[in-house]
Amino acid sequence: MKRLRQLSLLVLLAVGLGPLQFNPAAKLAAQTERSFETIAIIGTGNVGSTLGKIWAEAGHTIIYGSRTPLSSRVQNLLIETGNAATATSQAAAARQAEIILIPVPPTAIAEVIATLGDLTGKLVIDPTNYWEFEAGYPVSPRDPRASLAEEVQALAPGATVVKAFNTLNYMVMEDPSRSAGPVTVPIAGNDALAKQRVARLVEDVGLEPLDVGPLQAAEYLEEMLRLALGFRELNPGAAFDYYLRVRPN
Ligand SMILES: NC(=O)c1ccc[n+]([C@@H]2O[C@H](COP(=O)([O-])OP(=O)(O)OC[C@H]3O[C@@H](n4cnc5c(N)ncnc54)[C@H](OP(=O)(O)O)[C@@H]3O)[C@@H](O)[C@H]2O)c1
Asked: Which domains does the chain have, with CATH numbers?
């Protein structure tokens, strides 16, 4: 899979459509020295397990924070993840890492953030989404301006929250070639350095980061997911991925 990701990137660069050429966030990411991160992944479901395996393969240290770290399911995930990944409680995982991904149900956010303890100085990546069906179409269960990412930031005021990875299906993260073309991961947050670190993690997945602005922009990113989900509901068997092509203006 890693070779496939590298090959896809090479092909893109060769035809002049490489993410580094167009993408401001990717350019910034490329300017600084590559370093390996220690990442706590709170939640071992579809998104958490997928990104954990990919990032471990890229060389990062993965600590899963789970409600059941000793279960055979989580222990098997550690074997699949490799690179000496570990699993522990949610709070212990958060304590041990600088970067914390929270791929949990939106309804569990408050409970999970409270369990994690003081997150001052941590970079929290929020990939969560929330919807309810109204007449067969997904809508926000609350005021869509109140984004989940801003809720996370309010619950953990000392943390630096970045919204990312919420606009695409985990299967495209697992294998970006499913999309048969480049896929953008829009990133929103208030801290430029934090967004650069997240941009590099996006590139490790073989996807294209794009810095779309401050954390306020998370409301749009969460709507993007509802839009994509609505399309899937209306067109059984079909889906789209987002590719945002940057141009001079
Ligand atoms: N599925 C996708 O393609 C996709 C793509 C982008 C974003 N997202 C968003 O990312 C988040 C995670 O999605 P997912 O598909 O990975 O979900 P999932 O498969 O249901 O996994 C969620 C994980 O959260 C953990 N968790 C912690 N507290 C929990 C609680 N109180 N109740 C239930 N689970 C709890 C669980 O891990 P432990 O059992 O180890 O504690 C669980 O496995 C959601 O907000 C989703 O909208 C999903």
From this structure: 2-234 (3.40.50.720)
